[in-house]
Each structure stands twice: as C-alpha cells, then as structure tokens.
Write a structure and sequence with these properties.
Structural class: alpha+beta
Order of helices and strands: EEHHEEEH
Mean pLDDT: 87
Strand content: 25-35%
Number of helices: 3
Distance between the termini: 29 Å
Helix content: 25-40%
Shape: globular
Strand order of the largest sheet: 2-1-5-4-3
Length: 126
C-alpha cells in the first residue's frame, strides 16, 4: 500500500524563538517521521562528537533535547533550550492554507503566530 502524501507546515524556530524557516512541504507521515528522527539523532551525535566533556553533553541532551511524533498530527523536536523544529499536518493549520508564507506582513505574522501557538507542543501531549 502506498501512503498518501500530504502537505505539512514545516517550521524551524531559532535561538530566540524566531521563525527561521516556515514553508509547506509535501510528504507522507512516515517520510516526515523518518526525516525528523534522522535529523534529531544527527544533531545529538554532532553535539557529542564536538564536546570534550561527554558527561555534561549527555546531561544537556537529556534535559533539553526531545523528540515526539503522532500519526495524523506531525513531528516535533527540540534541539536545545530554544531551537526546535515542527512538521504539522495541513488540516491542523488550515487557517494558513493559501497564505503566501514568503510575503508575510505584520498581520500575516500574527495569524501564523496564533496558529503555531495553538499547535505548538501538540505532539508531546498525551
């Protein structure tokens, strides 16, 4: 069986909570879940490889790095205290369908922020 591809809102939050990337991406849930897991694991491995104090890095990863996914919802992972990535199913962010994410004015950013505030952390909820 071929899994249906759908649109996902992809958002990268930077070190001060700003949105560094916000765009639509097409894929299946399995594809985004695999990509998210691979990116998350690569980030953690890079932190460990670059650190000369392994114990503190492992504690840091345990405290600040987390990954969660929910089928039909999306994928979220935090890379440190401030940076994170989210993939959200189109139906959850339908207010943004048709919004030109490349040319957002102040009013457009308010809409985006309201939508993201509503769904941020949704994959971590029980």
């Amino acid at each position: 069986m071929i899994e249906n591809k759908t649109n996902w809102l992809y958002v990268e939050f930077g070190s001060r909570g700003e949105k560094e990337v916000i765009e639509w991406r097409k894929g299946s849930y399995k594809e985004i879940e695999e990509k998210g897991k691979n990116d998350f694991e690569a980030y953690k491995e890079n932190l460990i490889d670059e650190s000369w104090v392994k114990e503190s890095v492992l504690e840091y990863i345990e405290e600040f790095c987390s990954y969660s996914s929910k089928e039909g919802v999306g994928v979220e992972y935090s890379l440190n205290e401030e940076e994170s990535v989210g993939w959200y199913k189109e139906s959850l962010v339908r207010e943004l369908i048709g919004v030109d994410l490349d040319k957002l004015n102040e009013e457009g950013w308010k809409i985006v922020e309201n939508v993201i505030d509503k769904i941020d952390g949704i994959c971590f909820e029980e």
